[in-house]
Specification:
Shape: globular
Number of strands: 2
Structural class: mainly alpha
Strand order of the largest sheet: 1-2
Radius of gyration: 20 Å
Low-confidence stretches: none
Mean pLDDT: 88
Order of helices and strands: HHHHHEHHHHHEHHH
């Protein structure tokens, strides 16, 4: 049971990562590969700031760090006309070295200054209580931020960003600054991703260079799983489905490990598990479509 509580807790903490990827991939329609760099950047900045005793301030610092990363990618795309995929790769590659410089080493332990550790000590939480309290904190943070993002995308600026992702030519004809919308959207997306990195680091009490490995595919899996369940109806539901997909993905991974689905190699095959999950969630909608098309053709032949 503890394994699944931990999985749900981590699912909410990674939920902000899924939100960021949903914004860039679905709302802006941009395959942004900055993700792994900005996630690690948020983790590194949060660790350094928290280690100096500014635990809560570290989250704001991480969010700003992610905004800067997204802004660089946005400027490369809009001002220098670099292809979106290449722009993301350039920023991500640069951040790999920057993260090492910020952290000062490949990892940094700040467990005593972690907000989770401090809160657990404050309420004298031990054992299973830590997991339950951590789950509540993670869920509360994720739900509040998701609600704020949903409200934001109903504002004038949020609608401009959504319109930019739908049809840039139409937006330009409406005198909306497309470049600003793209840059702001990417900055917001990477800010959320960096904030997720900060939360994970506080949860674990350390920041490591390897934390960001695989975060891009994880976020994609969360978005795809959510859409497979809820469909593609509107932005609000899409943002919620991304968070739900994040939680479901973590539960699936926990199940694979718990039942030793791949035997002793279960923990070593997480990347393969993720790839299989993404493949299945992509294939299922197509299978449903093919079945529906077959049914329609069959009815058409009968009526003919």
């Amino acid at each position: 049971m503890q394994v699944y509580i931990t999985a749900i807790e981590e699912g909410f903490l990674y939920g902000l990562l899924a939100l960021g990827i949903y914004i860039s991939l679905r709302i802006l329609d941009i395959p942004d590969l900055t993700t792994e760099g900005s996630f690690g950047f948020g983790s590194a900045v949060a660790a350094v700031v928290a280690s100096q005793g500014f635990s809560l301030l570290s989250f704001a610092a991480a969010f700003i760090a992610g905004i800067l990363a997204g802004t660089v990618t946005g400027l490369l795309q809009t001002k220098l006309k670099v292809h979106p995929v290449l722009a993301g790769i350039i920023t991500m590659s640069g951040l790999y070295s920057i993260n090492l410089i910020v952290r000062g080493s490949s990892n940094l332990n700040f467990n005593d200054n972690s907000v989770f550790t401090k809160f657990f000590k404050l309420v004298n939480a031990t054992g299973m209580n830590k997991k339950i309290i951590g789950l509540i904190i993670g869920a509360a943070v994720c739900i509040v931020i998701t609600a704020l993002i949903i409200v934001f995308f109903r504002t004038h600026l949020g609608l401009c960003i959504r319109a930019t992702g739908d049809n840039q030519d139409m937006v330009k004809a409406s005198s909306i600054n497309v470049d600003f919308s793209l840059i702001f959207g990417l900055a917001l997306a990477n800010g959320l991703i960096a904030l997720s990195g900060a939360l994970i680091s506080h949860y674990l009490g350390l920041s490591d260079q390897s934390f960001s490995n695989g975060t891009l595919i994880y976020g994609l899996a969360a978005v795809i799983i959510g859409e497979a369940i809820f469909g593609k109806r509107n932005v609000a539901l899409g943002l919620i489905s991304a968070v739900v997909g994040s939680v479901i993905y973590k539960i699936i991974v926990a199940f694979v490990i718990d039942v030793s689905l791949f035997g002793k190699n279960s923990e070593n095959l997480m990347k393969l598990t993720c790839a299989v999950i993404v493949a299945v969630t992509l294939i299922i909608p197509e299978i449903k479509k093919q079945i529906e098309n077959g049914r329609i053709k069959k009815e058409a032949r009968k009526n003919a």
